[in-house]
Amino acid sequence: MIPAVLPTYNRAPLTFVSGSGSWLTEADGRRFLDLGAGIAVNALGHAAPELVEVITAQAGKLWHVSNLYRVEEQEKLAAALVEHTFADTCFFTNSGTEACELAVKMARRHHYDKGTERPVILTFEGAFHGRSSAAIAAVGSEKMTKGFGPLLPGFRQLPFGDHEALKAAAAEPDVGAILIEPIQGEGGIRPVPDQCLRGLRELCDEHGLLLIFDEVQCGVGRSGRLFAHEWAGVTPDIMMVAKGIGGGFPLGAVLATEAAASAMTAGTHGSTYGGNPLGCAVGLKVMETVTAPGFLEEVRRKAAFLAQKLEGLVAAHPEVFEGARGQGLMMGLKCKVAPADVVNAGYAEEVLTVGAADNVVRLLPALTITEEEIAEAVDRLDRAATRLTSS
């Protein structure tokens, strides 16, 4: 008999009942050190006091009114995002998947409004942009698309890192945009080199394409910058944001330049819940916290400490780990064993990690994790690796 909850996840036998900072408490009382943060969502940790205070205050005033009216909290968050990024405007969604839908629509509408038919969007092997019909068509992998055809047309997948294939595809007359994650998350924590991001910007400018960055997982401070593309010194035309921006509350956004977004006029897109007062009040507090003086410098300092500790972990267990990679507090351990085995061994040592493609285990802790907690987490991973080699 099918369970009441649709069984689309192979869930771990863990039930968490409370959390604080980088720690989660299981129903049986065990305390787990969380290096997953809800898959890069709880940017400020579990039950962050500043977010609890904001959401409690806002919940007592106003939750939802719809986008038929002006929403003060939405306007404040939009102003903060515009102030701190390349963008001139933004539209709020409830998730990264919804942000992907709008980014695709915006790119195609842009070229339509200019009187050109350029619906094709170039994407890359190993990408993940969500699970909607457009998002899985953008990725095109059998794992994501099998059984869900016919697929939405208008996407062309390219090998990751094949510059010649990219140059040839970008010159095709029906291509209108390039969509890429500056750091692939689900694909196995694969950063795109800075020079390649700069090359993408130049290629888009050369052929009149829009550059779309998916920073749903790597954005909002996770890389050590507010957004990961800042390391390369380039800007996109459109950017997808979610996960960390809500600090645990469902919130997403599409940020864009005026040129890219000008065709999105009244009636071209909408959302019932997107940009609600509750979500935007939380998002504004997240932005205020992450952009406060010294916060990102502290993230970068802790990221360097984590990278150093992971080097020692890999050296100590060469039969389990091949290496560590990533940027900021978005790290991956390339494994020589099945990533699920590492994740499960971590459960036994009360440390939480997240599996990914390319035989990688992801480490995505809260940006507020302390050095002491990082050291403890790596100690637990060390014991987990020992379990695998001694079993």
**Largest beta-sheet characterization:** 7 strands, mixed
Residue windows where pLDDT falls under 50 for at least 5 positions: none
Number of strands: 17
- Work out the radius of gyration: 21 Å
CATH C-level class of the largest domain is Alpha Beta
Please, how many domains? 2
Beta content comes to: 15-25%
How far apart lie the N and C ends? 35 Å
Structural class: alpha/beta
Mean pLDDT: 97
Q: Would you tell me which CATH topology of the largest domain applies?
A: Aspartate Aminotransferase, domain 2
The largest beta-sheet arranges its strands as 4-12-11-10-7-5-6
Query: Into which percent range does the helicity of residues fall?
Result: 25-40%
CATH H-level superfamily title of the largest domain: Type I PLP-dependent aspartate aminotransferase-like (Major domain)
Task: Report on the architecture of this protein.
- The radius of gyration is 21 Å and the shape is globular.
- The protein has 2 domains: 117 residues, Alpha-Beta Complex (Aspartate Aminotransferase, domain 1), CATH 3.90.1150.10; 241 residues, Aspartate Aminotransferase, domain 2.
- The strands form 4 sheets. The chain has a 7-stranded mixed β-sheet with strand order 4-12-11-10-7-5-6, sandwiched between helices.
- A hairpin with a 2-residue loop joins strand 1 and strand 2.
- With 391 residues, it is of the alpha/beta class.
